[in-house]
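[step 3/7] fold_predict: job queued, chain A
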Amino acid sequence: KMTQQMRDLQLAQARKPPGPSSPNAAKRLYRNLSGKFRVNYTSFDEGSLVGRGEKEKLRKSYLFQSNAALFEAVELQDLDRVQEMLKHYSPEELDLNTPNSEGLLPLDIAIMTNNAPIARALLQAGAKESPHFVSLESRSLHLSTLVREAEQRVNELMAQVVNEAPNADCSDKEKQLKAWEWRFRLYKRMKAGFEHARVPDAPSSVHLSVASSSSLQVTFWEPLSVNSAVVTKYKVEWSCSPTFSPLLGEAVMDKLKELQFTIQGLVSGTAYHVRVSAYNMKGWGPPQASAPPFAIPSNWREYDGRAPRRRGQAEALDHLLGQVKTVHQHCICHEPCKNQPQSRKHSVSKSLKHLFHPGSKFLKTLKRGLYLTAIFYKDDNILVTHEDQIPVVEIDDTYSCLLMQDFLWLTKVSCMWDEILWLRQCVTVSQSSCSCILQTRFKMLLAISQMQGLLGIQDLGQVFFEPIKDKQGNILIVTLKEVKTNQTFESVRWVPICKLQTSRKSVSSPEEPTALDTLLISVQDKLAYHQRSSHALSSGLYLGYLKLCSAVDQIRVLVPEQLPNILCHVKIRSNSNISREEWEWLQKMASLEEPVATEPEADRSQNPLFQELQVAIKELMTLVNIPLQEAKDFRLYSQEVLDFGDQVSFLLLLPPSDDVCTAPGQNNPYTPRSGFLTLPLQIFELGEER
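[step 4/7] structure written:
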């Protein structure tokens, strides 16, 4: 069978240009092919292709070329080129796990030539070993056949070159001879690599932790030995017995991007022992037991049987909202307010006429009042009106100061952009039946409806945490939304942000800029804030620092500029779960009057969480610029663990009770370094929910 494969290969070579005659020739082939690959076949104009058949031929041609180029790069042990191809092309485009005519895969060549860096790169990309090697004997026989047939082909070509007179055919024979000599040396090196290899050592370390009340997380590291062949998979086994008899389960891992495995479906409160073993082309190595030797699936809530804080809350709120809607579904919109002064009536009437009048449009200038602007951006472009203005509509031309409570109310409305019409009806009914204190909020809803109508879109995005004010008496409320699709809007167009900033002519002095000028100057900062506020934390357990400061009309919370939707924090570990045993220890520490640092040295070494917290507290104190000696007066919030979904949880570090919230006029002796800001507490809560 192998002889027939080699004959087929020879026929294929006779029909097409000869392969690389040397490593240098192969490199030239690779460079030529990689230049072609930079143009993806999907980028061609569809009109230039005759039909699906031609497109399919073109696709197969590129797949064949990319697969051949990858084999060449692996055979030449060119790590940079292998990494480059794996970076720019998917495993399917590279045909990563399709054997060549010799029955080999790129990973087979890498591990049998003992090229660990290339083998690891291939493994992380999802490469597998050839399914033809079902046993050590079959692999050995296959390699021996390759070496024997390559040697035979070299001898045949050498005899032909020696016996034939110099001509064009002889030159081709010499090229084939060089190629086969090079391939013969490759196969001999692969055969020697296989024969000298041995089974791998045990993984150097296996760490066991509690992932939930029904799962354990196993993290392990590669064997330390450098003499054995590359490890291509691992086996995780678990049992209730330290002798692993009987075995409760096992799992084989051949995707090695992360050396980590989560054992699911375990019984809470039961102790499980775990061990891990490694595999290479010579077989399975000895197992390595975990540290600690066993773990018990549990969660901190089991300590006192506490239910999740938010269980059923979303459903309850939806039910309440449905009830409110039912009550107001037959309300009459725009009912006049009987008790309001004449000027207020005229203002509402004017606003309504402005909303539904055909001449309703965006404003060009501000004339002392309260305004709403919507910033939509995509990459480095921003939406503007046909007059190259950021969309602005008027809320109230008689409003001279923005009450913080009205602004915070509007930020909550931003969670219900689709319900603006219904909210307007509700606010109108409240006005007619009670008093006129909701006039400003009603005008805000009118302005939102006008903005939605002019843009032709409901969702205006997230409200920026601070209105823009100028000395002319203007107040500008800003909403921000990133557009990720090719969405069309009415009455507006896209322009580059830099072009808008340079082309706009300011009508104010640098000393007293208008709110619109201030917006244009700071638009990049606002977009950066918006993007950062939507970032999510990676899975893990975090230590957060809660620091508040109060003003006359609001409480603000300290947050990092890079993640303004999260408290100042450092990561404790990748496992987000706090086990019942760990929570019991934290409760014990919280009840002691002595500092945690006085715990006996023996207990510290037995408690990984203690060591992790020590490192995290030092890092956090440095981050927020608080001397480490002051940490003895800080305390961990021991009432609960703050869970954000299933993958992120927080322990809170609190300052002394008198310093949790800094009062107006009170000096804060420790000022955080640059890179922090304070947000209104309600804004922070909304950002956290998003």
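[step 5/7] annotate
The chain has four domains: 56-196, 207-298, 369-534, 540-689.
Confidence is low (pLDDT under 50) at residues 1-50, 332-359.
exit 0
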